[in-house]
Amino acid sequence: MSNESELQIEVEAAINEAGITSFEVNDSDHVISEIRKIYVEGNPRVWWLSLKHRKSAKFFCDDSGYITIPACIKELYGDVYDLSKRVYFVVDEDEDGVENSLLVYRVPLDKVPEIIGNCYFFEYYVVALDYSWLIVENHHAEVIVCQYE
User: Any idea where the domains of the chain sit in the sequence?
Assistant: First the structure.
């Protein structure tokens, strides 16, 4: 019997459908720890409840927020940011009381909307590999952009 959740199977299938063959993160505990240290205040049930370094937040009543992720980065960096760069794609399995319910992948930024669009809704975080920015979409259809300078 597999230890993979239905969400993990769905997300990894969407990653494969996007043509990404190498997406594993060997040090996911370290990545999660670094993100928490930089962007999360305290120990909230979900990170977005207590984010630091917020730059903007927008609501999308049509659930299209994920499509705007590349545009959010362009707002921060202009055209100098290479949207094909890999990022951490952190999927929140939202298991109450389960500390390790976050899945971490390394995927190209410009593929993130395609991956999300091929899945049922879930909360996620997209984070630069150098931790300089973080984007989250929560279950309220709110896209929050944070930047650590």
Answer: 6-147
